[in-house]
C-alpha cells in the first residue's frame, strides 16, 4: 500500500485477463507480475481467466440469509481465457438441512463455455425442484462478441429450440444472454 496516501496497493496477477467484479470495465492484464490497484470501498475481487461463476447481485444488501437467496435471480458470469474457454459449477439447495443432500433434493450443474457454445451437464444432479431462478448469462471482457444478435437453447433431447435475447453492453464489453 502507498504509505503516504493509502490509495493504492500492489497485487500479484498470473497471466491472463482478470475482470474486476465491482467494475466490469476494469480488466487487469496479468503477466505473472504485480499490478498497482486502487483502494476501493469494497473488497477487490477479480474473476480469473477461464472462470464461470454463479453471481447474485447484492448491492441493495437484501440477501442476509439462505432463504433470502432463493428469491434473488442468479446470473452466470463468464470470463473466457485466451482460448475462449470458461467453466464452473453451480450447486443449488435451499440451505435447510443435510437431508436435501441425503435425499437428492439438490441440483448440481457443470457449465462450460467454449467455441461460443455453452454446455450444461446435470448428470451429477439430484432430483431438483429448487426454486432458484437463473435469469441470465453474462460473458464479460468480450469485445469480440459485440456483433452477436442471436442465441438459442436446445433441450438435451434436441427436439425443442428456444430463442434467447442478446444484448451487448459497449460500456462494459459484456454480452448478456436472457430468456425471452
Overview of the molecule:
This protein has 180 residues and is mainly β. It has two domains: 8-46, no CATH class; 50-179, Sandwich (Immunoglobulin-like), CATH 2.60.40. The protein has two helices and 14 strands. The chain has helices at 66-69, 99-102; strands spanning 8-13, 16-20, 27-30, 33-38, 46-47, 51-55, 74-79, 86-92, 107-114, 117-121, 134-139, 151-154, 161-169, 174-179. It has a six-stranded mixed sheet with strand order 6-7-11-14-13-12, with no helix packed on it. Strands 3-2-5 form a three-stranded antiparallel sheet, with no helix packed on it. A three-stranded antiparallel sheet has the order 8-9-10, with no helix packed on it. Strand 13 (161-169) and strand 14 (174-179) form a beta hairpin. The longest helix has 4 residues, at 66-69. The chain is globular and about 55 Å long.
What is the element layout, followed by pairings?
Blueprint: E1 8-13, E2 16-20, E3 27-30, E4 33-38, E5 46-47, E6 51-55, H1 66-69, E7 74-79, E8 86-92, H2 99-102, E9 107-114, E10 117-121, E11 134-139, E12 151-154, E13 161-169, E14 174-179
Parallel strand pairs: 7-11
Antiparallel strand pairs: 1-4, 2-3, 2-5, 6-7, 8-9, 9-10, 11-14, 12-13, 13-14
Amino acid at each position: 500500500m502507498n504509505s503516504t496516501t493509502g490509495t493504492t496497493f500492489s497485487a500479484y496477477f498470473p497471466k491472463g485477463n482478470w475482470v474486476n467484479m465491482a467494475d466490469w470495465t476494469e480488466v487487469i492484464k496479468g503477466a505473472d507480475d504485480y499490478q498497482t490497484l486502487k483502494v476501493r470501498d469494497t473488497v477487490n475481487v477479480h474473476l480469473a481467466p477461464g472462470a464461470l461463476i454463479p453471481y447474485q447481485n447484492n448491492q441493495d444488501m437484501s440477501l442476509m440469509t439462505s432463504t433470502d437467496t432463493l428469491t434473488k435471480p442468479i446470473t452466470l458470469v463468464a470470463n473466457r481465457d485466451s482460448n475462449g474457454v470458461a467453466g464452473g459449477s453451480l450447486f443449488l439447495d435451499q440451505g435447510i438441512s443435510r437431508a436435501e443432500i441425503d435425499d437428492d433434493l439438490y441440483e448440481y450443474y457443470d457449465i462450460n463455455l467454449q467455441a461460443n457454445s455453452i454446455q450444461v451437464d446435470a448428470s451429477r444432479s439430484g432430483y431438483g425442484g429448487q426454486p432458484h431462478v437463473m435469469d441470465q448469462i453474462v460473458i464479460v471482457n468480450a469485445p469480440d462478441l459485440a456483433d452477436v444478435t442471436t442465441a438459442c437453447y436446445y433441450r438435451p433431447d434436441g427436439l425443442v429450440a428456444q430463442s434467447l435475447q442478446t444484448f451487448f453492453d459497449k460500456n462494459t464489453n459484456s454480452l448478456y444472454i436472457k430468456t425471452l
